[in-house]
Amino acid sequence: MTVALVPGSFDPPTKGHIDVVERCANIFDEVVVGIVRNPSKNPLFSTEERTELLQACLPYDNVSVDSFSGLLVDFTNRRNIDVIVKGLRAITDFEYEIQMAQMNRHLSGIVTLFVATKPEFGYLSSSLVKQVRSLGGDVDALVPAPVKAALDERFPT
Ligand code: PNS
């Protein structure tokens, strides 16, 4: 039984995130989506809101949502995670991601696998979604329906 962790901020989850988790759900026995609790980042959505949004977007028996603070490798040890999976959009993601993968390997020996994101979501990020939506731009095609509803509530037009 192989358990994969897809970690991230998910503030908010985008269609790019959901695509990566769905593909992991088809490959691994179990997938844990791990939301990093990081109060210093001043997220738009609370950890509880992000948990509910991810659960609403991922109605699969083998996918669960959890959150963690502190080191990622402490969470992977605690939850008996076998592998970390990260989505890669472009070569610019690679530098930071390989650094984290190697540090995590140094800390605990855990393997990180990279999944190439769907090309149509190659430019997509939670930060851009928030910025564009807060300024009145249309992001409806880029986020799942529950996230669109949550953004509409946050930024009424
Ligand atoms: O969606 P993000 O913001 O790119 O996710 C980054 C995340 C959560 C994977 C990263 O910030 C993280 O692992 N944070 C936990 C703290 C930690 O373990 N830092 C050392 C990693 S090498």
Task: Characterize this entry briefly.
With 157 residues, this protein is α/β, with parallel strands linked by helices. It contains six helices and five strands; from the N terminus they run βαβαβαβαβαα. Bound molecules: 4'-phosphopantetheine.
What do these coordinates show?
The protein has helices at 15-27, 47-57, 72-78, 91-108, 126-134, 145-154, and strands spanning 3-8, 30-36, 63-68, 83-88, 111-116. The chain has 6 helices and 5 strands. The chain starts with a strand and ends with a helix. It is an alpha/beta fold and 157 residues long. Strands 3-2-1-4-5 form a 5-stranded parallel beta sheet, with helices on both faces. The structure holds 4'-phosphopantetheine (PNS). The site of 4'-phosphopantetheine has 9 residues, from strand 1 and helix 4. 4'-phosphopantetheine is lined by residues 7-9, 36, 71-72, 100, 103-104.
